[in-house]
Design brief:
- The chain has helices at 14-24, 92-101, 151-164, 177-187, and strands spanning 2-11, 26-40, 53-60, 63-73, 79-89, 104-119, 122-129, 133-141, 169-171.
- The protein contains four helices and nine strands, in the order βαββββαβββαβα.
- It is globular.
- The protein is of the alpha+beta class.
- It has an eight-stranded antiparallel beta barrel, surrounded by four helices.
């Protein structure tokens, strides 16, 4: 299991932020990702707001992963951290077939172009998500911060990075990309 603390914002000035990150950060890689989200037939994870559980197959190049995420929220419904369970899979289509045969239903598909940067020990991600726009995530992995620092202090550090890289941003409604796509589909 991996524990992750992150913030996600809608990025208004992606070109300027990417230029700044290339100056002061380190470009790690770029990739196309397709995430198919599944729910048990009788338990739609997305019916709970905010969504606590995600089960997905991530397709990216020659590697694919089955991922289960469990989200922890504070009393106000703000995301504190996520427990991530991931394993590589050789045949994602077969994994999708197995899930369907176990009465899981594909709920939504998210397609994005992701650019990874490293800055001050944080992972900074710029996501261009089909149908949603451009987002920026700042992530701290569990081994990147001392154990005596609180989740709130780590989140504050993530917001400080937004200032340092010159991000113009606005808050994202609660939930991940699949939640945002589902809401958008329901409003259409």
């Amino acid at each position: 299991m991996n524990e992750e603390i992150e913030i996600k914002v809608l990025l208004k000035n992606p070109d300027q932020v990417e230029k700044r990150l290339k100056e002061i950060g380190k470009l790690i890689k770029e990739e196309e990702q397709k995430d198919e989200y599944f729910v048990p037939k009788d338990n739609d994870f997305f019916a709970e707001h905010p969504t606590r559980e995600y089960l997905r197959i991530r397709y990216k190049g020659d590697t694919s992963k089955l991922c289960y995420h469990y989200c922890h929220y504070d009393d106000k419904g703000e995301l504190l951290k996520t427990d991530e369970y991931e394993t590589g899979i050789k045949d994602p289509e077969m994994m999708a077939t197995i899930l369907k045969n176990l009465n899981f239903v594909k709920r939504v598909t998210v397609v994005k172009h992701r650019t990874y940067y490293e800055y001050k020990g944080f992972e900074v991600l710029i996501d261009k998500v089909d149908g949603l726009g451009c987002f920026l995530e700042v992530e701290a992995k569990e081994n990147s911060f001392p154990s005596n620092i609180t989740v709130e202090e780590v989140r504050d550090s993530c917001y400080e990075i937004l200032k340092e890289i010159g991000a113009e941003w606005e808050r994202v409604p609660r939930g991940g990309y699949p939640d945002l796509l589902i809401r958008k589909q329901q409003l259409s």
